[in-house]
Amino acid sequence: MKKHDYDKILFRLTSIWQRLREGEILSVKDLAKEYNVSTKTIQRDFNERLASKLPIEKSGHKWKVKEGHSIDKNLSFEEDLVLDILKELSLSMGNTFSSSTNKLFSKIQNRHETPIFSKIEIEDISNKTEIIKDIQESIKNKTQIQFQYKNKYRFIEPYKITTFDGYWYLYGNDILTNRLKTFYIKDIESLNSTDKTYKENPNAIEKLKLAINVWFEPNEDLFQIRLLVKKEISKYFVRRPLNSSQIITKKYNDESIEILLDITSENEILFELKKWQPHLLVIEPKSLAKKILIINREFLDNQLELLI
């Protein structure tokens, strides 16, 4: 990203705020040129967003801190910690994104060695910045978009940009099939926004909130499953439920638990069963228990072939 591509409201306001704290007297015209926006936009920043929260005043076409007032330069411990966490998370999103966020954070925080370390891996989609911005704008305005995806041209009502297991997806309604779908953002090409508006489907957002992973099926009805979580891993399911519908229905003396939750797809939970085996077991439905048994038998056969 180039310096003057930072036309996002958050970056602009934060930068202006920091410079006012340092005692600068800021020109509306100069700021408009620097951030590549109109003077009306900068005037709106001051009049509607900053002046109501900060002791600043207008002097001609410039803005400054009011006489006799000062703006505290120190962040609270909690604010500083939140920024440290966000900064560390940005490192896992690729060099370009990390470099951009560090420039922003350096304008807010004093430079120091962060005590936070994150091992969350999120793919770098900095080469899709323009597409992301267009999708964000369309979601905000609830307007349809068009794009090329896996050799097909798609017409979509975009609902959310989301991540599953560190990969970025667009979630929305395919207008031609009237079905909810996820689209891997790195495979989206030649995106165009339209002026055709849509009404968001509240049920679609609720299905997304319940999703455990990208294998969820938003067009299918929810169904319940009951799992036995052995003592070796039960604490992890207590700390962080698989989804918001999870409830613990039984606790055993050895610290194993039974959980009940709603899902949309067998593939959605099969992914988790494989990840946690042999300590996560299916009680109900029996059809799902049989399916994971077949998968495990196939795994054992393949593994034995390698050992012989």
Structural description of this entry:
With 308 residues, the chain is α+β, with helices and mostly antiparallel strands. It has 3 domains: 3-65, Arc Repressor Mutant, subunit A, CATH 1.10.10; 126-199, SH3 type barrels (Roll); 223-307, Alpha-Beta Plaits (2-Layer Sandwich). 39% of the residues lie in helices and 25% in strands. It has helices spanning 9-21, 28-34, 39-50, 77-90, 95-108, 129-141, 202-210, 234-239, 266-276, 286-307; strands at residues 26-27, 56-59, 62-65, 143-149, 152-164, 167-174, 179-184, 188-197, 223-229, 247-251, 257-263, 280-284. The strands form 3 sheets. Strands 7-6-5-4-8 form a 5-stranded antiparallel β-sheet. Strand 4 and strand 5 form a beta hairpin. Helix 2 crosses helix 3 (39-50). It is elongated, with a radius of gyration of 25 Å.
Structural class: alpha+beta
CATH class of the largest domain: Alpha Beta
Fraction in helix: 25-40%
Going by CATH, the architecture of the largest domain would be 2-Layer Sandwich
- Major sheet attributes: 5 strands, antiparallel
- Please tell me what the overall shape is: elongated
In DSSP terms (H or I, runs of 4 or more residues), the helix count works out at 10
CATH topology of the largest domain: Alpha-Beta Plaits
Distance between the termini: 54 Å
As a percent range, the share of strand residues is: 25-35%
Mean pLDDT, all residues: 84
Main sheet: strand order: 7-6-5-4-8
Number of domains: 3
Query: How large, in whole angstroms, is the Cα Rg?
Result: 25 Å
The helix/strand order is: HEHHEEHHHEEEEEHEHEEHEH
Multimeric state: single chain
Please tally the β strands and state the result: 12
Low-confidence stretches: 1-7
Protein name: WYL domain-containing protein
Pfam families: HTH_DeoR, WCX, WYL
Keywords: Transcription, Transcription regulation
InterPro entries: CBASS_pafABC_assoc_protein (IPR051534), DeoR_HTH (IPR001034), WCX_dom (IPR057727), WH-like_DNA-bd_sf (IPR036388), WYL_dom (IPR026881)
